[in-house]
Amino acid sequence: MFTGIVQELGRVVAVSPAAGAARLTLAADLLADCALGDSVAVDGVCLTVAARDGETVVMDVMGETLRRTSLGAVQPGDGVNLELAVTPDTRLGGHLVQGHVDGVGTVLRRVTTPRWDDVTVALPDGLAKYVVEKGSICLHGVSLTVVAVDGDDVTVSLIPETLRRTTWGTAEVGSTVNVEVDVLAKYVERLLASRDGGGS
After folding, report:
1. DSSP code of residue 166
2. Which of 3, 21, 93, 200 is buried deepest, with most CB atoms within 10 A?
3. Are 137 and 146 in contact (CB under 8 A)?
4. Which residue segments constitute the domains of the chain, with CATH numbers given?
5. Average of pLDDT values for 62-91?
6. What are the beta bridge partners of residue 183?
């Protein structure tokens, strides 16, 4: 479990394809304290530390994850948003994030102002119903407040701190981003469907 508060901007050191899967080698100061088996959110995707060497760790990425997230396109030298799994004494500064990506969105528009950037992301089909204005959404591992929803398009505002500390500082129009909607909305939908005899 995560909160969507990125702790460090890491770097992809190597990508090693392996029979429909891949191994990612990542570098960041944050990773120096990781143990084998620890969970780390990488651009919003929950991955497990499989090997480590100082500030470098190796993580296995299944074919399913490569197909359903933007990690299938990462290259050595790319920056990635990193967050360690929460602990009982972690501050919940964002919202409950599982690291289970629902789909990949695309940056449609970006408007820069002196104090913040407004960014509009096109969501994959079927996800907008879980998003509400002033609710939370996790985009590329970052917990953000929804400013507006227009069909399948979601707009968020990025403060200077977010722009400095995450890959959102350099994300361009056309960039792909991992999307995780609020899990509570999905549970509510499931419960209501069960109550109504399995309908949607």
Report:
1. S
2. 3
3. yes
4. 8-84 (2.40.30.20), 103-189 (2.40.30.20)
5. 94
6. none
DSSP symbol at 4: S
Q: What is the pLDDT of residues 79-125, one digit of tens each?
A: 999 999 998 888 888 899 999 999 999 999 999 999 999 999 999 99
Nearest to 155 by CA among 197, 105, 194, 87: 105
Phi/psi of residue 169, each to 5°? Answer: -65, -25
Amino acid in position 95: H
pTM above 0.85, yes or no: yes
How does DSSP classify residue 140?
A: T
> Which residues, in sequence order, are bridge partners of residue 48?
39
Report the alpha-carbon distance of residue 110 to residue 119 in Å, rounded. 5
- What is residue 129's three-state secondary structure? helix
Q: What distance in Å separates the CA atoms of residue 71 and residue 145, rounded to the nearest whole number?
A: 24
Q: What is the mean pLDDT of the chain?
A: 94
Q: Which of 92, 124, 105, 114 is nearest to 171 (CA)?
A: 105
Token pair, residue 130, equals: 């879980």
3-state secondary structure string, the chain? CECCCCCEEEEEEEEEEECCEEEEEEECHHHHHCCCCCEEEECCEEEEEEEEECCEEEEEECHHHHHHCHHHHCCCCCEEEEEECCCCCCCCCCCCECCCCCEEEEEEEEEECCCCEEEEEECCCCCHHHCCCCCEEEECCEEEEEEEEECCEEEEEECHHHHHHCHHHCCCCCCEEEEECCHHHHHHHHHHHHHCCCCC
